[in-house]
Amino acid sequence: MGPDCVHWELVEQLRGHAWRSDARLRIDPRVLVLAESSFTPMGHEIVHILEANRIKYKLELAGKSLPVLTHLDKGRYAVIVFERLESYLNMDKWNRELIDKYCREYKVGILTFTHPEDALIKAQVRGFPLYVHTKLSLRDYHVNAQSAILRLTRAGNVVHGPLPDKDWTVFVLNHTTYEPLSYAKLHLTGSPVDPSVQDAGDINYVTAVLDKGLFDDIQRVIFGNGFKFWLHRLLFLDALSYLSHGKLSITLERYLLIDIDDIFVGKNGTRMVPSDVQALIDAQARIRRTVKDFHFNLGYSGYYYKAGVGAEDDGDEAIIANARHFWWFPHMWRHLQPHKFDNLTLLELDMLRNKQFAQNHGLVLNQSYAVAPHHSGVFPVHEQLYTAWKRVFDVQVTSTEEYPHLRSPHRRRGFVHRNIRVLPRQTCGLFTHTIFLERYPGGRGKLDYSIRGGELFQTFLYNPINIFMTHLSNYGNDRLALYTFESVIKFVQCWTNLEIKTVPPVELANVYFDMFPEEVSPIWRNPCDDKRHLSIWSVAKTCSRLPKFLVIGPQKTGTTALYSFLGLHPSIRSNANSPTTYEEVQFFNGKNYFRGLDWYMDFFPPVDNSSDTVLFEKSANYFDSDVAPERAHALLPHVKLLCILINPAKRAYSWYQHMIAHQDAVAMSNTFYQVITADENASKAVRDLKHRCLNPGMYASLLERWLDYYPPKQIMIIDGEKLRSDPVSVMDRVQAFLGLEIYFDYSKKLKFSKKKGFYCQVLDNNKTKCLGASKGHQYVPMEPKEEEYLRKLYRKDNIALSKLLPRLGRSIPSWLQEELADLR
After folding, report:
1. Are 618 and 574 in contact (CB under 8 A)?
2. Which of 325, 255, 253 is nearest to 284 (CA)?
3. HSE-up (13 A, CA, CB side) for residue 685
4. 568-606 pLDDT, tens per residue?
5. Angle at 149 between CA 148 and CA 154, to 5 degrees
6. Digit-coded pLDDT (tens) for 10-42
7. What was the pLDDT predicted at 487?
């Protein structure tokens, strides 16, 4: 089932669209997906396509109440996708009127699909001048070249042969509002015999239709089948672009880099011979006819040069003799995995040998690009690799399949670490062992399907930048890589208006991070949760060297007291002190995060897996951080969180007094009232102090942010006043929450100090050791106007907190009860 592709070597002039619309501006263009359930294959396919193309969406169940569609007179969604046409037709009157009104007012289109179980056989679509026939077998599919929808999809070719499934729907158009998007012919074998649709000749039936909105002022696109037919993926993306007036359009540029790893590496009998090298040069020349300046990118391991047998050594010499035709990048000298080097000197020596090989054999390494064997050391990060790469090769760009995980491929992303840009790498279905067509897993049919609309084609379709991993052996033997890439490039150019380009890796990285600047910051994930990551993680590292719980704050609520109490327990150990932030690491909330996972883990002692020891860290400014919840969850998804709450007005005043005690110039020159009431005309320094005083006290909204990532059972909320007045009972509950095997009797180690006004540690000689003079200090009371201002400021959030805590199964602390009593 392939296309008639005429003059595929000629790149068609891309079809341009001058998108114009009177649609109101949307908050953030996204798609509302109304699915039948959370488990339907069709719903998953829709979400997969949206995620792969980085199109934002919200998934809801079609039978439930509609989500809020507008905000501040702006539409939230640019397109509404119904998994099933009948779900749209069968909506209750209220929701149907609501969604139709929204679509008319905000010029929002509807995209939907028929389903073989829809009650529409040989029927009129309820409420519309559109007729359908369903459960048909079809063949010979082609798109309407005149359709205004087409942007990504290139018309003019035919998918010959029977189409997948025997449950197609075709449309009979009885109104000028309808325009055909695609056609197919009846495939009589296996189709129900219906005189009204029986094909006596070569009649084209409409298989997808555009409703231009002339009937009821709502534009729609309806498909007569789902995504089992590959071409519907292209048309789906075109329909999203058209219905959103261009706001949900993907770029038509595609960048291609084909890496050939393991040059000179390979078992005897699988390597390239001279004729394979010439075939590689010839294929590169053919691809250049449509992909300007295309080069294969060869990664070499010099140790294995001429380690083959007979003609294979001649093949190595032919590669060197023709080195000028290709781009080159370094693998490792002996093709060893970098994470197995714990000695930086030895790792650099291995790279230097490879560098010397390139110099001795005339290989020009001007790409500032390298790839690690088996992607070792790139992610999870092995810091020695990044250091050695910089020192030896001045590497600026690398690539990997492993970030954030190998699966799913469409979710692979890039990141930057130590000024080395890491790009996502893709596979093409070929690996070191797939070198003969007759032994290809699934046979030739599976490889051809991947090329002709399947996984490999979709990789081109969805990724604006494609770096493909291949191996030396794929270009010898049956030369499957040459067949695969020439075929898929031809297929892409037959069926799409994509423009394929090739640029060197450094320029490619510039393009990638210009497209996706939000990916510059990495997200460190736990290697211990992924078998593949664990296999390429240094044996010198251990999963036990990560904390089991975090004290997240907020500041000035009693976190230092809690930290000192936890330190008394024989099973609990904290991180080593930081030279700049004392007992706090402050990893997840600031610049320390970019120092990497090794830097963080070095703060914690190694722990024997059989030990009862539990590691933790306390960084009180995690609580109100914008980024800490996501970062913490990525690395420590199972960690438990301890959070202390006191009256937010008291916390704000305590922070101000804390800054006074540290002789902060801004606090010293402004009263508390001046700080908390500062407006946008105040200096940045004053506004920053106001932020640190007030924002951490918005407890409800900040807790919700953590609850987006962690379930309630992993969060313990401590009443700070209770911790101060009765720490023994609080610490008993903390021990139970943490599930500690050894119970510690805090009543024997904590004693109230009348002088200090709070509990202190009891030493072995029955003396007490208290926190420093800055802790537990009694300040001059707030002025009435300051108290009143803060009470009003926090009122809404306190009410929200009083509703949130019971929902989480938590009691309402005494200070909050008092605040709520004042509101009655």
Report:
1. yes
2. 325
3. 8
4. 999 999 999 888 877 899 999 999 999 999 999 999 998
5. 100
6. 222 222 333 334 456 676 789 999 999 888 999
7. 98
Mean local confidence (pLDDT), 264-287: 97
CB atoms within 10 A of CB 407: 10
Under 8 Å between Cβ of 632 and 585: no
Q: Note the pLDDT tens digit of each residue in 290-310.
A: 999 999 999 999 999 999 999
775 falls in which pLDDT band (50, 70, 90)?
low
In this prediction, residue 122 carries a pLDDT of 65
Report the pLDDT value the prediction gives residue 20, as an integer from 0 to 100.
Answer: 38
pLDDT level of residue 769 (50, 70, 90 thresholds) = confident
Task: Give the domain CATH number at 139.
Answer: 3.40.50.880
414 is in an annotated binding site: no
Q: Tell me, yes or no, whether 818 lies in a domain.
A: no
Assigned domain for 804 exists: no
The DSSP call for residue 519 is: G
Residues 583 and 699 reside in one and the same domain: yes
Query: Which residue, chain included where needed, has tokens 């029977």?
Result: 162
Q: Quick one: average pLDDT of 732-738?
A: 97
pLDDT at residue 17 in the model: 32
d(CA 42, CA 80): 15
pLDDT classification of 53: cutoffs 50, 70, 90: very high
Q: Is 161 assigned a ligand-binding role in the annotation?
A: no
Q: Could you tell me the two tokens for 647?
A: 């009256």
Token pair belonging to 818: 């008092």
User: Is 556 one of the catalytic residues?
Assistant: yes
776 is in an annotated binding site: yes
266 marked ligand binding residue? no
On whether 778 is known to bind a ligand per the annotation, the reply is yes
Sort residue 286 into left (φ over 0), alpha (ψ -120 to 50) or beta.
alpha
Say how far apart CA 283 and CA 287 lie, in whole Å.
6
Give me the catalytic one of 556, 618, 650, 690.
Answer: 556
Q: Which two tokens stand for residue 580?
A: 């700049």
542, 615 in Cβ contact below 8 A?
no
The Cα 600–Cα 587 span in angstroms is 7
The tokens describing 131, both together, are 């007729």
Tokens 């205004």 -> residue: 148
Beta strands in 701-787 (DSSP E): 715-719, 750-753, 758-762, 768-769
Q: Which amino acid is at 221?
A: V
Q: Tell me the residue length of the chain.
A: 824
CA 265 vs CA 270, 298, 313: distances in Å: 10, 12, 11
Q: Is 244 annotated as a binding residue?
A: no
Contact 596, 417 (CB under 8 A): yes
- Interacting residues of 562 by C-beta distance below 8 A, sequence separation 6+: 551, 618, 642, 644, 718, 723, 734
Within this chain, do residues 504 and 572 fall inside the same structural domain, yes or no? no
Burial 136-159 (b: 16+ CB within 10 A, else e): bbbbbbbbbeebebbbbbbbebbb
Look over the chain and give the mean of its residue pLDDT values, rounded to a whole number. 92
pLDDT on residue 822: 67
How many domains are contained in the chain? 3
Same domain for 235 and 263: no
Q: What is the pLDDT of residue 581?
A: 79
My answer on whether 235 and 270 are in the same domain is: no
779 is in an annotated binding site: yes
CB atoms near residue 198 (< 10 Å) = 12
Query: Residue with structure tokens 């070569």?
Result: 202
Q: Which two tokens stand for residue 479?
A: 């030369």
Together in a domain, 565 and 686: yes
The domain of 167 spans: 31-243
Rounded Cα distance, 181 and 146, in Å: 9
Neighbours of 681 (CB within 10 A): 7
Per DSSP, the three-state class of 309 is coil
Quick check: 768 pLDDT over 90? no
| 217 pLDDT higher than 50 | yes
Q: What is the three-state SS of 352-390? A: HHHHHHHHHCCCCCCCCECCCHHHCCCCCCCHHHHHHHH
pLDDT score recorded for residue 18: 31
Please report whether residue 531 resides in a domain: no
